[in-house]
Write a structure and sequence with these properties.
The protein has about 500 residues and is of the alpha/beta class. It folds into two domains: about 375 residues, TIM Barrel (Alpha-Beta Barrel), CATH 3.20.20.80; about 70 residues, Immunoglobulin-like. The chain contains 13 helices and 19 strands. β1, α1 and β2 form a beta-alpha-beta unit. α1 runs parallel beside α3 and α5 packs parallel to α7. The longest helix has 23 residues. It starts with about 25 loop residues before the first strand and ends in a 6-residue tail after the last strand. The N terminus is likely disordered.
């Protein structure tokens, strides 16, 4: 029996202050190589390219993402106005063809207008993609400095041991950081190329002839190796290759921060670490031995601001278990940098091996359950634009239901921006930014009865709709996630 006693129901208590704003890096890769994400095809008119970019950014904003990682250098080319490298064929259909506007400048302006961070993504060594259609432009490194570039299977690759090749990559990144208002610099997992099988001699390919295990084709860096040895170099060849990559990673980190200390530098390597450090049961490709990436060393030395290991395996795949690998990278993070793993959202498809949307949501949950990981990056935007199997809808209805501030990066900057001032103007609240130019967004809490609702608004928008709110609380947030003191306004108070 249930007894209903009149007058015994306690009214919910009204919280005087809102809770802390949620914080999480919610990034997405926008790949331009092979026109994976943008533009949808090469040779589109500039107006259509811009419209597609706006659609992507609007979608990112609507999904409560807070960062876009745009590929601006797929293969020693440029998706921006560059005096060092030619225009990418993925824009104009022909390498070197001017698209008629500056795409990177446009993306940055439109991203910031929506309160989104924009990271410029560079491929450090690839000189030509295997699906490239056009010839090299006269200003491409393969034409101007052919000794620095090597054909490797169907690819062309800048030699990491060649001084000019490494210097070119560093100069390209420095040029972008100086001239563009980017929030971050990002490099991917392509260091030395992933090994491919050595072509078999014709006589071994005759029908009925037995074949041994395939031998892998070594990268053709003999000239730079011999130059190193003749100069007194003592490292073994594998260690020398790793040292070449190490030195570039360290130089990028130091160069970016020397130019603009507030710009983040991030790396998204292959998701498996060194074989001699792996947890029991983890198996697979060794980037340490095959593409000469000593990621653990970069973490130990603090040569990056965030690590985004590509954990591109579904939940439950034991040899590459997502949670085990995420915990592994957290243990390697001795310098306490950001850890934002990459998720293979584009694996959601209708093929027999295609993922379910629930696989991605499960991995989002695994990331959130680990305080050492403060967010994640989705590969890639096309899956969210298409809402494959409802993944975008389910993210927005669940883990991305409300926006989130970027995690703070105190080793770059810890000082918060100045608090704004609020003034009621009829049914709206006007925001007057504090002194200085530190605010990128405003974090806004509105109270309706006992419930606080959170929103994030670009700092360029200076008014808040607050006609039905019982209270409004606002703070300024800079690009590195530092938050000012909060300022409150209630209907009974005029400021």
């Amino acid at each position: 029996m249930v007894l209903l006693l009149a007058g015994c129901v306690t009214a919910p208590k009204v919280a005087e202050n809102p809770p802390p704003a949620p914080r999480e890096f919610r990034g997405v890769w926008v790949a331009t190589v092979a026109n994976i994400d943008w533009p949808s095809q090469p040779g589109l008119p500039a107006a259509q390219q811009r419209a597609e970019a706006v659609a992507i950014l609007d979608r990112a904003r609507a999904l409560n993402l807070n960062a876009v990682i745009l590929q601006v250098r797929p293969a020693a080319d440029a998706l921006y106005a560059s005096a060092l490298e030619p225009w990418s064929e993925y824009l104009g259909g022909q390498q070197g063809r001017d698209p008629g506007y500056d795409p990177l400048k446009f993306w940055i302006e439109e991203a910031h207008r929506r309160g989104l961070a924009l990271h410029a993504w560079f491929n450090p060594y690839r000189a030509r993609h295997h699906e490239a259609k056009s010839d090299f432009a006269p200003t491409h490194i393969a034409k101007t400095n052919p000794a620095a570039v090597k054909p490797y299977g169907e690819l062309w690759w800048m030699d990491p041991g060649d001084a000019f090749a490494s210097r070119r990559t560093l100069d390209v990144i420095a040029d972008v950081v100086r001239r563009y208002d980017v929030d971050g610099v990002h490099i991917d997992d392509y260091f030395y190329p992933y090994p491919i099988p050595r072509p078999e001699p014709v006589e071994r390919a005759r029908p009925g002839q037995p074949k041994d295990g395939k031998e892998m084709l070594d990268f053709p860096d003999e000239p730079s190796w011999q130059l190193y040895r003749s100069g007194g170099g003592k490292l073994e060849r594998a260690d020398w290759r790793r040292d070449n990559v190490d030195r570039l990673v360290e130089k990028i980190y130091r160069t970016v921060h020397a130019i603009k200390p507030q710009v983040l530098f991030g790396v998204s390597p292959f998701g498996l670490g060194r074989p001699d450090r792996r947890p029991p049961g983890i198996e697979g490709f060794s980037q340490y031995d095959k593409i000469y990436a000593d990621v653990e060393r970069w973490l130990e030395r603090g040569w990056l601001d965030y690590l985004a290991p590509q954990l591109y395996w579904p939940p439950g795949q034991k040899a590459q278990a997502f949670d085990v690998l995420l915990d592994y990278w957290a243990r390697q993070n001795l310098a306490h940098r950001h850890l934002w793993p990459g998720l293979f959202t584009s694996a959601i498809n209708d093929t027999p091996k295609g993922w379910r949307a629930e696989d991605i949501l499960q991995e989002v949950g695994l990331v959130r359950a680990r305080p050492a990981a403060g967010g994640l990056i989705q590969f890639s935007m096309v899956a969210l634009m298409q809402d494959r199997k409802g993944v975008a809808t389910k993210l927005l209805a669940g883990p991305y239901a409300e926006p989130a501030l970027l995690p703070a990066t105190p080793w770059l900057k810890a000082a918060p921006p100045t608090a704004p001032k609020l003034r009621r103007n009829g049914e709206r609240v006007e925001i007057e930014p504090g002194s200085g130019d530190g605010a990128a967004n405003f974090a806004i809490w509105r109270r309706h009865g006992v419930r606080w609702d959170f929103a994030l608004q670009p700092a360029s928008t200076r008014t808040i709709a607050a006609a039905v709110a019982d209270a409004v609380v606002v703070s300024a947030v800079d690009r590195l996630g530092n938050e000012s003191e909060s300022v409150a306004l209630t209907p009974g108070r005029r400021k």
